[in-house]
Amino acid sequence: MKAPMDEEKAWQLYARAIDILDGLKPGFGLPILRHLALRRFSVAMTVLADRSAGEDGNELGLASRVGSAAWMYRRAYRMGHARAAYNLAISHFNGNDLQGYRHWLFRAAKAGDERAQIELQHFQTRMEHGAARKIGRHRPWQKLDEFL
């Protein structure tokens, strides 16, 4: 890992990378995100992990393997990014690992993620999204889903 970079410059590069990935600017966004992740920018680590974990969470990898999605989520969480713990929890749910889901949901709530706190209060083993259908844990939409 390289030394952290200036916060303002990191946010400018991050905004450029997101614009590129959204198709608003020309260029390649992933190399910029990798550069920011190497410079210990936790938001970029979370976005990179989101992209590499896949929609069903099966490509999480091992938390001990440098560069895997689980490693980046865990590293970003340790750097104070509570959303990384929440995203890791959802990836565990999508991979049908409910023990890992609850563990990381608790950590995200403890770190201050409001959505994780609400989900932990109303803990459910079935969700309304499409990835839950793939693992046999789908349920219809409920009024509570507006808050989650």
Fraction in helix: 55-70%
Number of domains: 1
Q: Count every helix, treating DSSP H or I runs of 4 or more residues as helices.
A: 8
The overall strand count is: 0
Given helix and strand content, the structural type is mainly alpha
| Rounded mean pLDDT score | 79
Question: What can you tell me about this protein's structure?
Answer:
The chain has helices spanning 7-21, 29-38, 42-53, 69-78, 82-94, 98-111, 114-121, 130-134. The protein has 148 residues and is an all-alpha fold. The protein has one domain. The mean pLDDT is 79.
Considering the chains and any ligands shown, give keywords for the structure:
single chain, 148 residues, mainly alpha, 8 helices, 59% helix, 0% strand, globular
Brief synopsis:
By secondary structure, this protein is mostly helical. Helix content is 59%, strand content 0%.
Topology (SSEs and partners):
Layout: H1 7-21, H2 29-38, H3 42-53, H4 69-78, H5 82-94, H6 98-111, H7 114-121, H8 130-134
